[in-house]
Amino acid sequence: MLTGDNEHTAKAIAGEVGIDEFRAGLLPEDKHAEIERRQQAGEIVGMVGDGINDAPALARANVGFAIGQGTDVAIESAGITLMRGSLHGVASAIEISRATLRNIKQNLVGRLAITCCVSLSLQGCFIRSPARCFRR
User: Least crowded by CB within 10 Å, which of 9, 30, 52, 117?
Assistant: First the structure.
């Protein structure tokens, strides 16, 4: 968790939501630099923010989640806007994204299988006797 809040507040929030690692008292450029450092280390970084000070980090993150009641700058900088002010929306958005990706993959595999079957059927038909394939 990266926050501009003070250490005491950050520790309380981190403990409440089960976050072990946090940094408090950060400026916008500190958040941006930390996200960049983690990305260079090969991590995929998600950032949740609601204020103008979160905008650079939201834009830099692999996935930026803006709180819908936040500033316009934060909303414009993020890839996803959460319409409610709850962090539960992050988990829901990730779950929906995974389900959508799974659906896309299933559709591609199904489409490929159908295309192969049709293609093989037509090839077999034309190899034997093209006139027999289209007889009524």
Answer: 117
Strand order in the sheet with 46-49: 46-49, 63-67, 80-82
Residue 115 belongs to domain spanning: 87-136
* Per-residue tokens: 115: 């295309």
What is the pTM for the complete model shown? 0.70
CB 66 within 8 A of CB 82: yes
- Express each pLDDT in 77-123 by its tens digit: 888 888 887 778 888 888 999 999 999 999 999 999 998 888 887 77
User: CA 57 to CA 27: how far, in whole Å?
Assistant: 10
Query: Which of 85, 105, 120 lies at the terminal end of a domain, its last residue?
Result: 85
**Cβ-contact 36, 55 below 8 angstroms:** no
Instruction: For residues 35 and 98, give the distance between their C-alpha atoms in angstroms, rounded to a whole number.
Output: 23
Mark whether 99 and 69 lie in a shared domain. Answer: no
